[in-house]
């Protein structure tokens, strides 16, 4: 390779790097307005607790999607939320919750016009596809993280069967490769049997057929739960809920769409208040 070829290669690399810089800067600026910081305080097992989670707005009147485990098992609970781009916290309340899917919808008070996210029209995800996340791991509020899908996802999933639970579920993934990942591939009877040192009461109650996205590289931590998973076009493809055995786990957009429709349809199921002692184990709770 002569000097000319080498200089052209360097120039091409610089242009490529600059293009990526511009692309991610624009994505970050476009997506930040829909991200919220959620602060939850209350009593857990008779001890005062305060922790943070991530949420994102999907309707301009302050309706936020987040993880149910972030607010479950908390008594005398107070919820406050602020936009990532602002400093003022507003009070919020639980509008709708589906514990068995680990999904919750919050309503932020005094909000009438906020930026909103957009679900992907096609939930198909290919192996190795880049995925973005904006969340608040520990005190690193507003972290912009890039990972990749470890397994494919499809648009047309089977509607989760609420009569089932992960505590009694036997995964057949080792016998037959599934078309897409579900909650039961992560939490199942065999997994709980291997980890009897923890109660897993919350995880055992989850519905095994809820579709999930298995990804790597986002490195979820406490505060990340409830944050959106975006494709490279900035559309919502999932919602981060945990990290298990090194993998980042998100609820697939198909389940988010079903949940959001039920929660916002007047004739849909009534809202369910968070209740009971079921708490995620330390291996899963990253709120």
TrEMBL record:
<dbReference type="InterPro" id="IPR009003">
    <property type="entry name" value="Peptidase_S1_PA"/>
</dbReference>
<dbReference type="Pfam" id="PF13365">
    <property type="entry name" value="Trypsin_2"/>
</dbReference>
<feature type="region of interest" description="Disordered">
    <location>
        <begin position="266"/>
        <end position="287"/>
    </location>
</feature>
<feature type="region of interest" description="Disordered">
    <location>
        <begin position="1"/>
        <end position="21"/>
    </location>
</feature>
<protein>
    <recommendedName>
        <fullName>Serine protease</fullName>
    </recommendedName>
</protein>
<dbReference type="InterPro" id="IPR043504">
    <property type="entry name" value="Peptidase_S1_PA_chymotrypsin"/>
</dbReference>
